[in-house]
Amino acid sequence: MKKLPKSAVVLSTSLLLSLGFNAGADSKPVHQDLLDKHKPEKISEHVYVIQGPTGYPNKENQGFMNNPGFIVTDKEVAVIDPGSSAAIGRAVLAHIRKVTDKPITQVFTTHVHGDHWLGNQAFKEENPDVKFFAHPTMIEEATNGAAAEWISTMDTMTEKATAGTEAIIPTEVLVNAQEIKVGDLTLKAHIIEGKVHSATDVMYEVVGEKVLFTGDNINNKRIVRMDDGSFVGSIKAAEHALTLDVDKVVPGHGPTGSKNTLTYYRDYLSKVYSSVKEMRNEMEAHEMKPKIAEKLADYKDWQGLDEELGKHISLSVLEAEQEDF
């Protein structure tokens, strides 16, 4: 029997993966719903985004809740935040392979929270030489236990739907304003000193494409946890982003938007924090909530507002107290 050329075998494997095919018990799982219902959107000449759902990780969504992105250049492909599991990462990879067969050489992480980067595994499987970039503190925290904690958290929240995921921790350390070449394009890393959404955040500007990936520094139609972050730092990050020459903003969660997305999320953070500073000497945190909620009528339909607002007020009280010292 005549043997198929090696390239044909690779193409066939890639095609099967792109179709979500699982051949036997030993095959690697692929997130089928992501393949079927969440198609990449081309938001500029070279940039694509797969918009995820905005709910919390659960058994039904199998942990998929962020906005993976990829950039197709003349010679290679870069990926930003490939999601929270190996199966999600493989589905993102399958979508990329429907667009291009160029090598995926670089993967960028916006911050340490595992719903954004545990999909790294799929890209290491395809290309052992791929480079993974992140904030130095992200690498440190992930290495010192955060990676294992996030794998456990995702397994618990999804009732083992993310089982089998291995943490591929980035090794390439970024600094503020660093420019990284990806083929004929450039990514610029924007790092705000101190805490923002966490102490590990990087925003990525696709120079020339006027696209900014913000990670969870900015969100749209989604209120996120701020347990690891700073309201003052997050407002500062939004103000910095507003100075950039961008017109498409890819938030950590929620739909891609215009530059107004930056203003809208900054205003949410500002209203919460300034209100707390005004009220904290007159009432307790739980008494503030209904009054602050009245000021946030524009955000009443945002996913997570009911769950997070009380915690945001309490965290703002603590941060305001720390500002006094």
Automatic annotation (TrEMBL):
Coiled coil: none
GO biological process, one term: antibiotic catabolic process
Gene3D superfamilies noted in UniProt: Ribonuclease Z/Hydroxyacylglutathione hydrolase-like
Residue spans crossing the bilayer: none
Signal peptide start-end: 1-25
CDD domains reported in the protein's UniProt record: metallo-hydrolase-like_MBL-fold
Top-level division of the source organism's lineage: Bacteria
UniProt keywords, alphabetically: Hydrolase, Plasmid, Signal
Annotated InterPro entries: Metallo-B-lactamas, NDM-1-like, RibonucZ/Hydroxyglut_hydro
Domain named Metallo-beta-lactamase: residues: 65-253
Matching SUPFAM superfamilies: Metallo-hydrolase/oxidoreductase
Keyword check for Hydrolase: yes
Similarity annotation: Belongs to the metallo-beta-lactamase superfamily. Class-B beta-lactamase family.
Name of the protein in question: MBL fold metallo-hydrolase
Organism: Thiothrix fructosivorans
